[in-house]
Task: inverse folding
């Protein structure tokens, strides 16, 4: 049997997973690293740290799987977006990678927003506004603050681009990752020349644009030796981690939505055309499938539940340590004791502002309607219901934009909670499906690589072979009626508090 390597380039860790041709994970390794924060706004990482983590993870996977290197036929990549690498003519990094979380370019983002306007930026790039994390802002910061580094840079690369070059010697990129650079025209699928001119970047300094799941080339002989593989391994263009996650969940047709409740709540809805709507301002991203797009939103998610656990669930944490039971499992059991709707307790989960569709950075978290009757389990369940309502808000926005939702595929750590999945089904009125393979992003990357080398005929074929549902959660009609009322309160509460959010 032949095998596929999947490389997941995450923010604080790299995952390496070896899959067989049916999508079964043969071995997995996770290598963590600590980000470098020179200042409150700066977040960096030495580029070699990514590579060394990859090598270590790969060695562990090959040793554990006992698969012969010659049987590893393809390599696919799932990557974090917006992390920027400045390289010389040979592709060697000139400084630390500026990680996507970096916010140093605040003044430059404001300058670009003033010059181009958020409306033009949205209609051109699909991104609703220019923010400091976009590579365009970061490059302008370099030009303003490190002019010599800007001048010396011959290649502006994202992290996927860097790995592809280091593996194959070729400069190649793809749309799902570059669409949030703020210098790619998502409608015409070309570089946005006006933005490049403003930030003083030539198209020759950027990689060649390809589609996801295209064959790039074999491993360079010297790289194959370094990695303990052979030049029979073919590298393919990958995709943004959320696009890969959508693939790994089978979210490849309109009407399907995938939600990833990790620290953040990420929602992806597949569409056949770019969705640019000034009213709702939902970011439009390019999918990992050619000429396919995603309405793609982020907002606060599981971090709200973690905040509550860390500050108010000491008993659960102690119990967990003594019994070796996950504290979130204990919190799940507490939430199960509470009726749907939490007896009138409603939460707004905007602890770090509200993103799409509200797009209100000044929004705050709120618990409303609690009485002497409400105990800690009510607050736990109210948080779960609030995240479900945040999903509903995006489904409502999509519907007004002409995109219906027939089912929801649930990913991330939140998908392990049966009670949370049921709440999401009851609140949305849509079936919730969890996936047999929880590593959907890595599986999506493997599917792209498999397609590139002909192991599967198409992405659709790959989904049919490699993606399987673990469990379906059907909406409970009785709870559904309760949640219609509670969701109405959620929306009214937010709208009534908007003027208060404006008061510092």
Result:
């Amino acid at each position: 049997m032949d095998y596929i390597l999947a490389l997941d380039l995450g923010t604080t860790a790299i995952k390496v997973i070896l899959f067989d041709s049916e999508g079964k994970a043969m071995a997995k390794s996770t290598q963590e690293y600590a980000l470098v924060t020179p200042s409150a706004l700066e977040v960096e990482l030495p580029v070699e740290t990514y590579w060394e983590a990859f090598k270590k993870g790969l060695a562990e996977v090959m040793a554990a799987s006992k698969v012969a290197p010659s049987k590893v036929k393809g390599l696919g990549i799932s990557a974090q977006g917006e992390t920027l690498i400045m390289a010389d003519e040979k592709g060697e990094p000139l400084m630390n990678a500026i990680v996507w979380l970096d916010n140093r370019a605040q003044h430059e983002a404001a300058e670009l927003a003033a010059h181009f306007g958020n409306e033009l930026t949205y209609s051109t790039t699909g991104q609703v506004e220019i923010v400091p994390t976009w590579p365009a802002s970061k490059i302008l910061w370099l030009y303003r603050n490190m002019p010599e580094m800007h001048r010396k840079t011959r290649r502006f690369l994202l992290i996927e681009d860097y790995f592809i070059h280091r593996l194959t010697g070729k400069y190649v990129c793809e749309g799902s990752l570059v669409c949030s650079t703020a210098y790619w025209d998502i409608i015409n699928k070309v570089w946005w020349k006006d933005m490049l001119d403003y930030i003083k970047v030539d198209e020759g300094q950027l990689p060649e644009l390809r589609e996801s799941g295209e064959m790039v080339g074999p491993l360079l002989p010297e790289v194959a030796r370094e990695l303990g593989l052979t030049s029979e391994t073919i590298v393919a263009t990958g995709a943004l981690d959320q696009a890969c996650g959508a693939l790994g969940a089978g979210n490849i047709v309109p009407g399907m939505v995938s939600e990833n409740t990790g620290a953040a709540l990420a929602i992806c809805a597949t569409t056949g055309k770019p969705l640019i709507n000034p009213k709702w301002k939902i970011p439009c991203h390019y999918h990992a499938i050619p000429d396919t797009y995603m309405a793609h939103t982020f907002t606060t998610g599981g971090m709200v539940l973690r905040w509550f656990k860390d500050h108010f669930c000491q008993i659960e944490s102690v119990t967990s340590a003594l019994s070796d039971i996950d504290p979130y499992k204990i919190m799940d059991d507490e939430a199960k004791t509470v009726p749907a709707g939490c007896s009138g307790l409603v939460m707004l989960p905007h602890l770090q502002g509200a993103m799409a569709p509200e797009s209100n950075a000044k929004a705050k978290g709120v618990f409303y309607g609690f009485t002497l009757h409400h105990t800690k389990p009510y607050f736990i369940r109210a948080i779960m219901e609030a995240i479900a309502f945040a999903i509903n808000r995006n489904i409502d926005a999509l519907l007004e934009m002409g995109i219906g939702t027939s089912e929801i595929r649930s990913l991330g750590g939140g998908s392990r909670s049966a009670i949370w999945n049921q709440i999401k089904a009851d609140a949305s009125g849509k079936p919730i499906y969890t996936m047999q393979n929880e590593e959907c992003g890595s599986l999506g990357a493997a599917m792209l690589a498999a397609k590139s080398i002909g192991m599967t005929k198409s992405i659709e074929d790959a989904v049919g072979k490699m993606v399987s549902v673990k469990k379906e959660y059907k909406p409970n009609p009785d709870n559904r009626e309760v949640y219609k009322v509670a969701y109405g309160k959620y929306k009214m509460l937010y709208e009534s508090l908007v003027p208060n959010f404006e008061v510092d």
About this structure: The CA atoms of residues 145 and 184 lie 24 Å apart. The chain has two domains: 3-237, 249-504. The radius of gyration is 23 Å. The domain at 249-504 is CATH 3.30.420.40 (Nucleotidyltransferase; domain 5).
